[in-house]
Amino acid sequence: MDTDLLIVGGGPAGCAAAVMAASVGMRSVLIESGDALCGALRRIPVVRNVLTATNGPDLAAAIGADLARCDLCRVELGHRATLIDAFDDRVEVTIEPVKTMKSVETVEPVETEEDAGSARTAGSRLTAPYVVIATGVGPLGPEGAGWLGGVAGRALPQLWEADPAVIDDRTVLVLGADRPLGTVARAHPELRARLVVAHPPEDAYKTEEIRRDPRVELVAVRRLELRPGTASAPITAEVETVEGERRALTADLALLNLGSVPAPPAGAVVADRSGYCPPGSQHPGVFTAGDLRSVRFQRIATAMGSGGEAALGAYYASLGLPTETGGPPTEVGGPPGRTGGG
Ligand SMILES: Cc1cc2nc3c(=O)[nH]c(=O)nc-3n(C[C@H](O)[C@H](O)[C@H](O)COP(=O)(O)OP(=O)(O)OC[C@H]3O[C@@H](n4cnc5c(N)ncnc54)[C@H](O)[C@@H]3O)c2cc1C
């Protein structure tokens, strides 16, 4: 065995798993495909639902410092887990270096004498009795949104990646009502943009935070068809609203805000019919944590809690004690896509 516990994904869930594992004396190797830990947190300017944290970058820095102090965890940045194999007595994780890695910003890999294997060889395999999979979710592309037409071949940026200066003083057609809209509105009260948010009815429950924002116009639609256009010309779209009315929407630019889809590595990670990977359905050596578990529980605090639980699950299993890996309900939501994101 290379270590006591392998952890795939260096977001809040994976990092919490590493710290919890160390607290009970388990060595771990954490594999993160990005060039820094907690990349998602670095893009959240304002946080209001996490104890002691008010913004993502500071929280990411604090977590990075915690991991740097964690002698029992070796962090391998810039490596993607491509395959998980689970056997009766062990799990194996195949990892590949990520070629586009730019720099190592926060945590240098910590080598300990006990670390038998190095993760730095192309296509190498790491072996341990248990693995925590905490790879989070990725953005849902327009091809996964059945209500959206005319998007093929159009390069539409993601709302959560957009520069606020590009939005200011403009009319923006936001495609989908996923939660990054609330993040943008909360983080930039000074923005004078008009945000026309076209969304399928299934997204209505996500609009609570922004529905009273005077900059936002919500349009619940059955169908939206973008008209052909160029990047520089105003955007126009034909919509059929949920009431059956036909309307034309015009905007200076269009941004995607469709939701997210789970991003597990290939192999032994079991997904339910919505594509998410509930802890209770996994091989005894595989523990899932964070956003990957469920369409509904996608929050920083729940990711951390579930990461800690996953590591404790592995610890109790190593002692031969029964573990409960029930996790949140798994039958919520439809297929990945229209209900993506929490
Ligand atoms: C715009 C935006 C705003 C948000 N605002 C809030 C908020 O205000 N409050 C809140 O509670 N939550 C918020 N969230 C949600 C929050 O970011 C997530 O719930 C949280 O980050 C989930 O943690 P995680 O560890 O499960 O996944 P992630 O943070 O996504 O971490 C997963 C990690 O795994 C890595 N990875 C993926 N695949 C592989 C692989 N094959 N091999 C190796 N590494 C891999 C990724 O690079 C990533 O670093 C927001 C999300 C977004 C996008």
CATH class wording of the largest domain: Alpha Beta
Strand portion? 25-35%
Number of helices: 5
Q: How many structurally independent domains? A: 2
Q: Portion of residues in helices?
A: 10-25%
CATH fold topology of the largest domain? FAD/NAD(P)-binding domain
Radius of gyration (CA) equals: 21 Å
| Termini Cα gap | 37 Å
- Average pLDDT over all residues: 88
Structural class by sheet pairing and helices: alpha/beta
Question: What is the string of helix and strand elements?
Answer: EHEHEEEEEEEHEHEEEEEEEEH
Protein architecture, described:
There is one protein chain. The protein is α/β, with parallel strands linked by helices and 342 residues long. The protein folds into two domains: 5-100 and 123-139 and 260-319, FAD/NAD(P)-binding domain, CATH 3.50.50.60; 142-256, FAD/NAD(P)-binding domain, CATH 3.50.50. Helix content is 16%, strand content 26%. It is built from five helices and 18 strands. The protein has helices at residues 12-23, 56-68, 164-167, 180-187, 300-318, and strands at residues 5-8, 28-32, 73-77, 79-86, 91-97, 124-128, 130-133, 137-139, 148-149, 171-175, 194-199, 216-226, 235-241, 246-251, 253-256, 260-262, 266-267, 286-288. The strands form four sheets. Strands 9, 10, 11, 12, 13, 14 and 15 form a seven-stranded mixed beta sheet that branches. A five-stranded parallel beta sheet has the order 3-2-1-7-18, covered by helices on one side. The longest helix has 19 residues, at 300-318. It starts with a strand and ends in a 24-residue tail after the last helix. The model is unreliable at 103-107, 110-121 and 327-342 (pLDDT under 50). Flavin-adenine dinucleotide is lined by residues 8-14, 31-34, 39-41, 43-44, 47, 49-50, 80-81, 134-136, 160, 180, 183, 263, 265, 290-291, 298-301, 303.
